[in-house]
Design a protein that fits this description.
Elements (H helix, E strand, L loop, with lengths): L7 H9 L7 H21 L11 H35 L7 H42 L5 H28 L3 H33 L2
């Protein structure tokens, strides 16, 4: 059974154990899927309502985007596990001779880059989900605007969480040019979409506390 297909209690139990996977990356992908689904729920509660007939085509398009993102997030839970397991094994490679040290360094570098790719992809999906939640908050049913706010909060948490799984791998890399580029790209996503998520949350909170 894939990790993403586990029942919630089983997933949480394995997450809490010393098993190498799932870890922070998989958890971030799950949170991103939940946040996206909350935005999608706003769409479901908007479509078919006469009051929102003028924006219904846009909402339906956003829902289709959410359906795709939810599947992609869930697939990334398993992809993160697949990419991390070789890295966890690489740490245990022998390094007693110069030849063994060189081989371990080579394998480690490849595994670090592979392990970095999925959390960075999760970050990009989170950025897309945050933009969608913004649209749901602006155009969706006001009776469900709180769910758009919760959704964007989850997506921001997933964005930040996935970034740490990027940074822990770039920190260990000896290819500093590659690491610096990935770090800069990740920081740019955090700066732009973290700020957007904060704005959406503040707008939603403002509507609810009027």
């Amino acid at each position: 059974m894939s990790i993403s297909a586990k029942a919630i209690p089983d997933f949480v139990s394995v997450l809490a154990s010393k098993a190498p996977v799932p870890g922070g990356g998989g958890a971030a992908a799950l949170v991103g899927a939940v946040g996206t689904a909350l935005g999608n729920m706003v769409g479901s509660l908007t479509v078919g309502k006469k009051k929102y007939a003028d924006v219904e085509p846009e909402i339906i398009k956003l829902q289709k985007d959410c359906d795709r993102l939810q599947k992609e997030f869930l697939a990334l839970i398993d992809k993160d596990a697949e990419d991390f397991e070789p890295l966890s094994r690489a740490y245990g490679l022998p390094a007693n001779t110069d030849a063994e040290k060189a081989e371990k360094a080579r394998v480690m570098e490849k595994c670090l880059k592979d392990a970095c790719a999925t959390p960075f992809e999760i970050m990009k999906k989170c950025a897309e989900a945050i933009k969608i939640c913004e649209q749901f908050a602006e155009k969706g049913s006001k009776l469900a605007v709180s769910d758009a706010g919760v959704g964007v909060t989850f997506c921001k948490a997933a964005l930040d969480g996935a970034s740490l799984n990027v940074f822990i791998n770039t920190k260990a890399s000896t290819d500093r040019a590659w690491a610096d580029k990935i770090n800069a790209d990740a920081d740019a996503l955090i700066k732009e979409y973290g700020a957007l998520a904060d704005k959406v949350f503040a707008d939603v909170k403002g509507q609810l506390k009027k």
